[in-house]
TrEMBL record:
GO terms for cellular component: cytosol. Pfam families: Guanylate_kin. Residues 2-180 form the Guanylate kinase-like domain. PROSITE patterns: GUANYLATE_KINASE_2. Transmembrane segments: none annotated. Essential for recycling GMP and indirectly, cGMP. Gene3D superfamilies: P-loop containing nucleotide triphosphate hydrolases (3.40.50.300). Belongs to the guanylate kinase family. This is Guanylate kinase. One of its GO terms (molecular function) is GMP kinase activity. CDD domains: GMPK (cd00071). Keywords: Kinase, Transferase. It catalyses: GMP + ATP = GDP + ADP.
Length: 182
């Protein structure tokens, strides 16, 4: 059965870092999504996201879409199928609203990993270390969506694996166990 690993959790917990590890270590392709937010330093169109204008975003058809911290994000069935053509297990980074939608629509094909840190004070430092500007970090951390995504939504609690990402070495050990269990 084709499988989708969904990575969700608050901003700065390490979703993208884990997604990159899955690609590098296990060849698990990333499902690319679309956004209207500005590129961060080093990000490339078609590699990190499909970067859209509000007009081009509205022209696409989405499996699900959300507004997060004032910007639009959406994922498509085509993006998922494209990744599944490369490998039977793929990964996708979405917010918890997106995770709920994928579990609802794809059921057992989806494994949800909720990425967490034990002290949320770490998040600000991590986002600053990533190179985000102070204003953007404050806004992002205090956004309704990032605060909400600190917790697993009760509706997907039973389908969700917690990944505590305080220490990168421990995180990779847990991920290695989860992947090898397959
Ligand atoms: N275990 C860790 N220890 C220290 N730093 C980490 C760890 N995991 C990730 N980071 C760093 O934290 C920063 C944020 O990570 P990342 O971009 O993966 O977060 P994210 O959850 O995808 O955030 P966002 O939702 O804002 O895109 C990056 O600079 C990354 O290198
Ligand atoms: N529901 C969806 N959430 C998405 C999608 N693409 C990304 N995201 C989530 O948005 C926030 C912010 O991302 P960032 O790259 O600006 O930090 C984060 O939680 C992502 O997981 C999507 O297509 N659908």
């Amino acid at each position: 059965m084709k499988k989708l690993i969904i990575l969700c959790g608050a901003s700065g917990t390490g979703k993208t870092t884990i997604q990159n590890y899955l690609l590098k270590q296990y060849g698990i392709p990333r499902v690319l999504t679309h956004t209207t937010r500005a590129k961060r330093k080093g990000e490339k169109d078609g590699v990190d996201y499909y970067f859209e204008t509000p007009v081009s975003f509205a022209e696409k058809h989405y499996f699900e879409s959300v507004t997060y911290d004032g910007k639009q994000y959406g994922s498509s069935r085509e993006g998922l199928e494209r990744a599944w053509k490369k490998n039977p297990i793929v990964s996708l980074v979405v917010d918890t609203a997106g995770a709920i939608e994928y579990v609802k629509q794809l059921g057992k094909q989806v494994d949800v990993w909720h990425i967490e840190v034990s002290d949320k004070k770490m998040l600000k430092d991590r986002l600053l270390a990533r190179g985000d500007n102070v204003h953007a970090v404050e806004q992002r951390i205090n956004s309704f969506e990032s605060q909400r995504d600190l917790q697993i939504p009760p509706v997907i609690q039973d389908n969700t694996q917690v990944i505590m990402n305080d220490c990168w070495k421990k995180t990779t050990q847990l991920i290695d166990q989860l992947i090898q269990k397959r």
